[in-house]
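Hi W.,

Here's what went into the run:
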Amino acid sequence: KQEVTQIPAALSVPEGENLVLNCSFTDSAIYNLQWFRQDPGKGLTSLLLIQSSQREQTSGRLNASLDKSSGRSTLYIAASQPGDSATYLCAATNTGGFKTIFGAGTRLFVKA
Amino acid sequence: EAGVAQSPRYKIIEKRQSVAFWCNPISGHATLYWYQQILGQGPKLLIQFQNNGVVDDSQLPKDRFSAERLKGVDSTLKIQPAKLEDSAVYLCASSLLLRGPGNTIYFGEGSWLTVV
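Here's what came out:
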């Protein structure tokens, strides 16, 4: 059974800092891994999707990496801004059944 | 392109009452998901449809929850009777495909349920 864990649960950083959010999964037989952003009272917005054959994906100041062998993914945010404050969730989709399992998220607060 | 639409946005009911949530996915999306998100937790998959067939409903409490996706488009999630622990946000999502490059999942704003 796939389990997804995100560390840390919460993070507070000053504006301009580069930061890394971590995601680990127990079953390496994944089809893809996605990173989402959730603002308070809102649904989830997809940020990056990494297929199992890929090592990383980039979008603007965001870079996500995937290491299936170690069961880890990281989301790197460069030059953080107060507008980046949100909860970031990762989700792994398994090859069998294509069920997408979410972590509990990392709550990020970027101080101006 | 219109996003995933959900209604109602907010609902307060008493325990043992029933409630229904409606979802209209992005046009052309074959896969539809219902997730339950309790405050402070990640979303938990309740049921996943591919067109109008069920792909996974292993975590759906079938004694009180039901869902259908008639004609492979809109979907309804029903809870009857509701319990206090059902208080959560119910998120509907859709993706173009179950697998392949179109697998990005798009979420609606959610339906907030409070059971008192």
